[in-house]
Amino acid sequence: MRKWGPLVAVCLGTFMLLLDVTIVIVALPDITSSLGASLSDLQWVIDVYALALAALLIGAGSAADVVGRRKMYVAGTVVFAAASLACGLAPNTTVLVAMRAVQGIGAAAMFATTLSLLAAVYQGRDRSVALGVWGAVSGGAAALGPIAGGLLTQGFDWRWIFFVNLPVSLVAVWLTLKVVPESRREGAGHRIDWAGTATFTLFAGLATYAVIRADAVGWGSGRTIATLVAAVAALGLFIAVERRSAHPLLDLSLFRNASFVGVMAGALALNAAAFGFLPYTSLWLQTLLGLSPVLGGLVLVPLAAAGFVTAALGGKFLHGAPYRLVIGIGLVLIGLGAFGQSLLDAGSGWASLTAGLLVAGVGVGLVNPAVAGAALASVPPHRAGMASGAVNTFRQLGYALGVAVFGTIVASRMETSLRGAVPDAHGTARALAGGGAQGVLGRTPAGQRAAVDHALHSAFASGLSTAAMVAGVIGVLAGIAVLLLVKTPAARPVVPAPAGPGAASGTESGSVPAAVPAVERR
DSSP E strands: which ranges in 348-463? Predict the structure, then answer.
């Protein structure tokens, strides 16, 4: 137990924080009916967690190097557990969104330390085994998220998707304090880039807020334009701070390297194209097709399962393939899979998604293990840790922006489809996109319900198809960009990576020492 106890402790926390990225998706309709959530509320419930994770990940890793990685992991787990309890007890969407943000802060502290804790404990073959188990557990969390969310929501209540974190957190904290040694970066002069962390967080939050609110207030409104201008200003401040910092959060000179730019673009597009519109797919499955939460979760399993199997096989058979080909082809497959999910109409059922989900899953399985290795190969060894953190940051940011953008696309296309079919096309479209189909039908006179029901099915299918088509374009263009920009030589063996939107980047078993600062066991 003492030998593998640290692995169990780290994997428990990793499983929880990645499960919470996907577990919420299936519970969205029940959250809507319980708290009266709107479309923008649902977007924030999903996005604010990913945003906090993206914005704070590199900063949390830097802070852990100074204060101690075990201490940061335990503190993050405690914050995550407390926020999970508050999410489960939330009386309204404002509290739920706020506590999801706190959850993301705790998750960032946990996620930023997982690989470095394992690297501090295990060496040689044991390290390869530990990283392989960590990757498999992460993939399992992504695959089990929709199923676990469906079982808990249907069997108990949507609040249990958060309550379930409490006993797991207690075990993780107890085991970490008992068997995981403390480690930190040795040597003087290392500082935490608080200014960089703050300005990047401000930029990511403002940009996402502008996109989410644009559908309600209009893209050309003064509020949207002002928020976008503020986001650009925050980005400018971040760039200025990083250029002047002796210990930058992100070395901007890395972006002079075309390969690094290509890998970051691929990481951003990966989560946006593969997962960004899935929350609306789940709403369609449950509120329009009438599937239960469990069945709604099972429909999405082919994506995660195909990704997990492909990653495992790819790690064994594709270790000699160039990164640019593996990532580029994988992103193109994600795009083609999204196109396959865009062929919906008023009469479509859940089976219409299966082929597209499988193709996209194969693409995810190709990209996941290779993207971190490509990032490490595109930078000098002393920047490997920064490159690994940047990959995870861009992936989470891609998911957050994808959910925001595709929500706006779905609602806008629905509104166009509903004009002439219902009195208030704009309000009906936003209610429909937020899971309020039954409420719309309940307010419709009995003699008009059949026609309105057909219009709602047609509108949602149209909105979802348009979002999937845009995701397909993003995936294909990103794949082409990677093929053109990334000049990485032949890949080295990688540990199979998880398949979900919140998944950690696959890390090369042979390159972890470069990706993780030197540590001393204590």
Answer: none
Three-state SS for 187?
coil
Q: Identify any residues that bridge with 185 across adjacent strands, giving them in sequence order.
A: 519
DSSP H helices, 23-92, are 28-35, 39-67, 69-88
- In whole angstroms, what is the distance from residue 54 CA to residue 398 CA? 9
Q: Is residue 38 within 8 Å of 97, Cβ to Cβ? A: no
The one-letter amino acid code at 475 reads: G
> Cα torsion for 244, 256, 276, 385, to the nearest 10°?
-70
Helix (H, G, I), strand (E, B) or coil at 345: coil
Q: Return the pLDDT at 515.
A: 36
pLDDT digits (tens, 9 = 90+) for 115-166: 778 777 887 777 767 766 776 676 667 667 778 888 888 888 899 999 999 9
- Residue 43 has which token pair? 């977007």
User: Shortest CA distance to 209 belongs to which of 110, 109, 101, 283?
Assistant: 101
| Dihedral angle sign, alpha carbons of residues 486, 491, 492, 495 | positive
Alpha-carbon torsion angle 77, 399, 154, 15, nearest 10: -30
The pLDDT of residue 496 is above 70: no
Which of the 8 DSSP states describes residue 287?
Answer: I
Encode pLDDT of 85-111 as tens digits. 999 999 999 999 999 999 999 998 888
Query: What is the rounded CA–CA span in Å between residue 436 and residue 441?
Result: 9
Contacts of 37 (CB under 8 A, 6+ apart): 28, 31, 45, 93, 434, 435
Phi/psi region, residue 287 (left: phi>0; alpha: psi -120 to 50; beta: rest), is alpha
pLDDT above 60 for 198 = yes
The 10 Å Cβ neighbour count of residue 222 is 9
Dihedral (Cα; 209, 213, 214, 215), 10-degree rounding:
140
Burial of 298 (0-12, 13-18, 19+ CB in 10 A): middle
**For residues 271 and 464, what is the distance between their CA atoms, to the nearest angstrom?**
17
* Closest C-alpha among 273, 255, 252 to residue 264: 255
Residues 6 or more apart whose Cβ sits within 8 Å of residue 211: 401, 404, 405, 408
pTM comes to 0.82
C-alpha to C-alpha distance for 65 and 27, rounded to whole angstroms: 37
